[in-house]
Design brief:
This protein is of the alpha+beta class. It folds into 2 domains: about 100 residues, Immunoglobulin-like (Sandwich), CATH 2.60.40; about 475 residues, Glycosyltransferase, CATH 1.50.10. Strands 2, 4, 5, 8, 9 and 10 form a 6-stranded mixed β-sheet that branches. Strands 11, 12, 13, 14, 15 and 16 form a 6-stranded mixed β-sheet that branches. Helix 2 runs antiparallel to helix 16 and helix 13 packs antiparallel against helix 14. It is globular and about 75 Å long.
């Protein structure tokens, strides 16, 4: 053993004996709304032996403007055995400015990355970039437009349809999806139609702020662009084409309208059921039909298309569902469709269908507080849309006036939100990461991340969309069942929950990674894609998962390189930014 190694060994021993703890501060790297909860997390390799203060330092004056005491310790043995975590809570501080958090332990000072505190900070700081992201994701290069204007159908011979427009699904995938994973039945995410509906919801929710920041017309134009694509995706037989698949081929003429199974196996089952994007597409078209603006189609045409598509799925939905059975995703997507048509038309048909779907969701509520996906025992969990049942019920309640039906829906929302808080706080959880219940090998268990062994046979990835959807649900649902003054209009525990999900996305996570590209200290590596597409500022990457090798999703993992599978963590995906948009609009709306 040489002298250098001996000296290093001695130094480590001395540090160990003196109780020195390596300190890291994890914080939202972008900003906090002045009236929201504000919590950072501090980690140490050993428990602190005395009370420790933290300081909020104004980066302009370099003076401390707030001092607090770290609370803890907490541990997350499933992630980092032996490490101690503490919370730095500065929610009471509301003064606008740019700040860092500093903590001194054993004579060594650690500092966070700078962040902004300001009224409506997150919306003000990120909305422009989110709109930019979608604008850059448009499938509007000359190659794409030329190919998509004459798109062939899987098994359709020489028949072609014009289905140009829309957004590329991800930074590594220029395909366009209403929904993928349809064959798995219980995991279908809402993709392009969700993006449009989210833009509409934000535009209607915070119009004054959008106008103040000169963003209203830009957001509306992007929503109309998406609506026009959905109009082209509506077949002459009144079903929506579910997927335009690129086969990851650089030749745009390789693209086809398809249904999709595992391992990029394609089929001619391209008709979108309610749960396969059809329901949210109807909802988005019905909602935008009420605007005085229109794109390539008129408001009347948007509404007529929504009506025709809804009538078609009332007749054929079960045929399009891969297993021939409706489940919870059909219910909340059909509820959203019927609700928007009810709002747009005031017709009894849509009122009755909305009430039926709302009651279906009520019946799916388990005694434990989680929804049941099927007609048996599978808990509802979802990698991207976990908050959508509550959001759909909340939207329905903007129109429903019947007292008994309102009471039933409100009871379901309350139980769902209570469950989200309960399962999240059941274990030591200093980051406040939203946990969930799922069926694994025949038993219901709770965990931080989705199980990797699931109905898809292969698909799992980071869950930033899920987090933002649950943040949205906590706010829009919470205002209905737990209204309060301050804290975005909800009780403290829901406000903290909502804030911590967004903070995780923006850097308050164990990897100190800001998953919104172009913001914060550290982003994922740039990802290139076909036709000049790729990572864009304002786009949000998939994020953190359970340990790669663990089928139940336990442990924790984040990789920037993994022999081509790094997309599970690093790829931008359009549902992430769509749900983040809803969350920050809900925060700014109060």
């Amino acid at each position: 053993m040489n002298l250098r190694v001996v000296l290093l060994f001695v130094a480590v021993c001395i540090l160990s004996l003196t109780g020195f703890a390596q300190t890291t501060i994890y914080a939202n790297q972008v900003g906090f709304d002045s009236r929201e909860p504000k919590i950072a997390v501090v980690s140490a390799d050993k428990p602190l032996i005395r009370k420790t203060v933290f300081n909020l330092i104004n980066t302009t004056t370099n003076k401390s403007e707030f001092t607090g005491v770290l609370s803890g310790p907490a541990t997350i043995d499933d992630w980092t055995p032996g490490k101690s975590y503490y919370q730095a809570d500065f929610s009471a501080f509301k003064r606008a400015g740019k700040y860092v958090i500093k903590v001194t332990i054993d004579g060594k000072t650690a500092s966070s990355f700078p962040f902004i505190i300001e009224e409506d900070a997150l919306a003000k700081l990120t909305l422009s970039s989110i709109i930019h992201y979608y604008n850059k994701q448009r499938a509007n290069t000359p190659q794409e437009i030329e190919a998509d204007t004459h798109m062939k159908l899987q098994g359709g011979g020489d028949k072609t349809v014009d289905i140009h427009g829309g957004w590329c699904d991800a930074s590594g995938d220029v395909s366009k999806y209403f929904s993928h994973l349809a064959y798995a039945n219980f995991m279908s995410p809402q993709q392009t139609p969700l993006v449009v509906w989210s833009m509409e919801s934000a535009s209607e929710g915070i119009p004054q702020l959008l106008n103040k920041w000169k963003l209203k017309n830009k957001l509306d134009d992007e929503a109309l662009y998406g609506a026009d694509y959905m109009m082209r995706a509506l077949s002459k037989d009144n079903y929506f084409y579910m997927i335009i698949f690129s086969y990851f081929n650089k030749d745009p003429h390789a693209r086809r309208i398809v249904g999709l199974r595992a391992n990029s196996v394609t089929t001619d089952e391209y008709q979108a059921a309610f749960r396969e994007g059809g329901g949210m597409a109807i909802a988005a078209l019905a909602r935008i039909s009420r605007w005085k603006k229109h794109g390539e189609y008129t408001s009347k045409q948007y509404l007529d298309a929504a009506k025709r598509a809804f009538a078609h799925l009332l007749k054929y939905n079960i045929k399009y569902d891969d297993d021939g059975k409706e489940n919870i995703i059909d219910d909340y997507c059909a509820l959203m469709a019927a609700t928007e048509l009810w709002i747009a038309t005031n017709q009894p048909l849509y009122r009755n269908e909305a009430r039926k779907r709302a009651q279906n969701l009520n019946k799916r509520m388990s005694p434990e507080g989680y929804f049941i996906s099927n007609n048996a025992d599978r808990p509802y969990w979802h990698a991207s849309d976990a908050g959508l049942p509550v959001v759909a019920l909340s939207r329905y309640l903007t129109r429903e006036k019947d007292k008994s039906l309102r009471a039933a829906a409100l009871a379901t929302i309350k139980k769902a939100l209570d469950y989200n808080l309960s399962v999240t706080n059941k274990v030591s959880n200093p980051f406040g990461y939203a946990r969930q219940s799922f069926l694994y090998k025949g038993k219901v268990q709770d965990g931080f991340f989705i199980p990797h062994d699931n109905e898809t046979g292969w698909w799992w990835q980071g869950e930033d969309a899920r987090l933002a959807s649950l943040s949205t649900a906590a706010l829009v649902g919470g205002r209905l069942v737990y209204p309060a003054k301050g804290n975005w209009g909800v009780k403290d525990s829901l406000a903290v929950f909502a804030s911590q999900q967004v903070s995780w996305i923006l850097g308050c996570n164990p990897y100190s990674m800001c998953f919104m590209y172009g913001f914060g200290k550290t982003n994922v590596p740039y990802m290139h894609s076909n036709f000049g597409h790729g990572s864009e500022k304002g786009g949000i990457s998939n994020g953190i998962t359970g340990k790669k090798e663990n089928g139940d999703g336990s442990g924790i993992d984040f990789k920037t390189e993994d022999n081509g599978n790094e997309w599970r963590w690093t790829e931008q995906w359009i549902p992430h930014a769509a749900w983040f948009l809803q969350a920050i609009a809900a925060m700014a709306k109060n």
